[in-house]
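Ticket reopened. Same input as before:
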Amino acid sequence: MAPLLSEEQCRSLLYAIKNQPEAGDNTAESPNNMHEYGAIVHSPVLTSWVDELVNTKLKNTLQEKFPGMPGYYFSSHHSFITRYSADANQDLSLHVDASHITLNTCLESRTQGADLIFTGTRCRSHVDTAPDEPMTRFRFQSGDAVLHAGNQRHFVTPLESGIRTNLVIWMRLQGEDYQHSNPWVTKRCPKCQ
Ligand SMILES: [Zn+2]
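Engineering reply: fixed in the latest deploy. New output:
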């Protein structure tokens, strides 16, 4: 985990996402099938900001952190905000993302609980196997970002109080299937070794 955005950048980004122009029917659906509360990033301005972030600003970091990645051009990304609070999400069960790489950035945090826990990278056939020990835990402060492989299994612990809002960016590599069955993914699965 590393700081990515200043407090002010967090505030303006959150404001921009919440105030995107209406974009037709698809904004009514939930950001993904696990998050009931949030919003999809869809405006052209924000979409090009995400595109520049993942394909230009983070390029060196991604190459360094994920050696052997098949290419590094993210031809598509799915971005959404997700919110934990008493009247929104309370937790999130164990899952992998529909991405090659995920960038998870906290835009506001005043919580007890709602920690993000990683339990190890797995290929599709080993997704339900026992967690790596020790598990890795993150407690977000505003501006903190976590970059992880999409098949790094994770969940969110129950919220005790407060609110947390994060921007989640699912990055997908051009020409690669992101269903966690390609060789780059299976190579990173300890159960396949
Ligand atoms: Zn495996």
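The beta strands are 2-3, 38-40, 74-84, 92-95, 101-113, 116-121, 136-138, 144-149, 152-156, 159-173. The chain has one domain: 2-19+29-192. Please confirm and we'll close it.
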